[in-house]
Amino acid sequence: MNADHPFALLGLAPELLNAVADLGFTTPTAVQSQAIPLALHDPDAHTQNDLMVSSQTGSGKTAAFLLPVLHTLLSQQQAKLAEEQRRWAEQVAAAEAAGEPLPKRARRKDPTNPRHFKPTVPGALVLCPTRELAQQVAHDAIDLVKHCKGLRIACVVGGLPYAVQIARLQNADLVVATPGRLLDLQRSNHLQLDQVQFLVVDEADRMLDLGFSDDLAEIHRLTERRRQTLMFSATFAPRIQQLAARIMRQPRRVQIDTPQEKHSSIKQVMFWADNPSHKRQLLDHWLRDTSIDQAIV
Ligand code: AMP
Q1: Is 179 in the pocket of ligand 1 (CB under 6 A)?
Q2: 38 and 53 in contact (C-beta within 8 Å)?
């Protein structure tokens, strides 16, 4: 992907741009071109913006939150790796200078061995209201990290056997979850949430509809040290704004106007009635019109 490609202009890492190209995305959707730069960096501030985004399913919202979060996780991981390599080179140089045997690299422990069990400590958490949505989001995330060496995605949803879930969770950097199962695994110490830097609440309106308000409050408390919260919702209804006020710091709003779908086979007409009696007469007239097959009044 070349530097003036529409996605490259958003400032994303080359590994992610390659994945976007593999997926065949040529131009960012409206929600992506507005939310990604805001989520990545605010030139006026040293922290990252909290965002409240109104967008519908099908708008490309999943990549709009996954790409900036993965971008930061990736650059942190690359910085950590470079630092480890620098330290290693220093140790080797010091050993050579002192004529000592070269240090041995620590061997990776087999994570499937229960004796080496360590709770998973993700850097990013995406909450979804349903198992199907969580699986879809995790699937999209796996596609997007295809070229990122060592960034691991896990999906935590109800209905999977615990042993399978725990095995798949090991060393995950980004966890996509439904709230109930996530809290189960946190309480049983398979998962630690205090290092979460990025919290995404996807379909916040459905989350409240499904009664996850208390779970959200608990997850908000457990991830209190995070640096960014991104909330996506179909609407900014008052209850969503109340939730935003509870879990976000002065969020920037991104409102995407979804163009009304036009159906060529549907004709919409408005008739003004002078008064209720006129309205009934009009209605009576249309109901008697046998040339109309289907109509909604
Ligand atoms: P979402 O709203 O996240 O459920 O995305 C809806 C669909 O749009 C998914 O199938 C995505 O793979 C696809 N999509 C997301 N972003 C783009 C893009 N920039 N260009 C083309 N398709 C996209």
Answers
A1: no
A2: no
